[in-house]
Design brief:
By secondary structure, the protein is of the alpha+beta class. It has four helices and five strands. It has one domain: HIT-like (HIT family, subunit A, 2-Layer Sandwich). α2 crosses α4.
């Protein structure tokens, strides 16, 4: 099966994706295609698997540990209040984890809502020039944490 996650991982492997933050041992950290919250990232496993439970226990532990490290890096780079994590796989049936920074200056109605409540179609699309500084800062923090390969 080929999903958007499969295609994105292939793009990461070939070095043709400007959203790539870093190669991690478990997969790829990338910035979201829509930056609904500045610094929104995903962790994609490489190789792609259908869901978290398809990973061997040691690989699952590594993926989840690196998900936390990506959250640490996004938190440090953005100055967010907290990080929300999500793993669904219902629309794209391949494992991928979302890392959403949450900010104190979000609209009041959204502060306690999940990030899916935002209008994603109106969110800024990832732009290499506009988002490269934040992407690179997240990469630097991942390097300091010893997560980047």
């Amino acid at each position: 099966m080929s999903t958007a996650i499969h295609r994105l991982v292939e793009s990461c492997r070939t070095g043709n994706d400007p959203t790539v933050v870093a190669r991690l041992r478990s997969g790829w950290a990338v910035m979201g295609q829509r930056q609904v919250l500045a610094g929104y990232c995903l962790l994609l496993p490489d190789p792609v698997v259908p869901h978290l439970n398809a990973l061997k226990p040691a690989d699952r532990d590594l993926f989840l540990a690196e998900l936390g490290l990506l959250g640490d890096a996004v938190l440090a780079a953005t100055g967010a209040l907290r990080i929300n994590y999500a793993i669904f796989g219902n629309v794209e049936p391949a494992l991928h984890a979302h890392v959403h920074p949450r900010f104190v200056d979000e609209p009041e109605a959204m502060r306690t809502a999940n990030p899916w409540g935002y209008d994603w179609q109106q969110a800024p699309a990832f732009d290499g020039r506009a988002h490269a500084p934040l992407r690179d800062l997240i990469r630097q923090h991942l390097g300091r944490l010893g997560a980047a390969v």
